[in-house]
Design a protein that fits this description.
The chain is mostly helical. It is built from 7 helices and no strands. Helix 2 packs antiparallel against helix 6 (about 145-165), helix 4 crosses helix 6 and helix 5 packs antiparallel against helix 6.
Length: about 200
Amino acid sequence: TITQALFFAVVVAIAWGSDVPASAFGVGPWAGAGSVRDLAAIGRATGYGFAAGLALYVLDDLAAALAERAGYGAPDRLRETLSPATRREWAALLVVVLPTIAVFEETLFRGALVGAFATGFGIDPWPLAVGSSIAFGLGHGAQGRVGIAVTGVLGVALAAIFIATGSLLAVVVAHYVVNAAEFLTHGWIGTAPGDPLRPD
């Protein structure tokens, strides 16, 4: 996390020094406004992000279940370590920790490495999406090889949403929904990957 924070600071400094506008990061003009039209844009981005997050969670869970069935199960130690034991800890995870992670990682991997670089240096965003997704996957090395691969593919999907919508908010919400759904289904309810999708 410290390495990501330092890298993030360097990327933002480069973007700032290159006069890259905030819109390149996916932060629209509504960020400091408050008109009804701006609120509608926020609502649309939030809705897109929520729907995309649910779809990505289902696909992520299926991929984890298939990998486990093939004998390449990702280690659960990280989720078990982070899973709360009390209601207060669950509230902290869902209201503070996961939103912070989603904002930080999406600002870095989608906003900066895709949007800001594409705008600031006139680069096609799709190669940047692939490169940032590889970095995103490698940044989740604690999840093992399968976790890195699945997270990298998830990064490509999030980058595609970012490029299509131009909204950092949409991918932040999608990222949060994926993480929250995984913790709630596997950490709180206690299902294994793919269980909700298997017939009884």
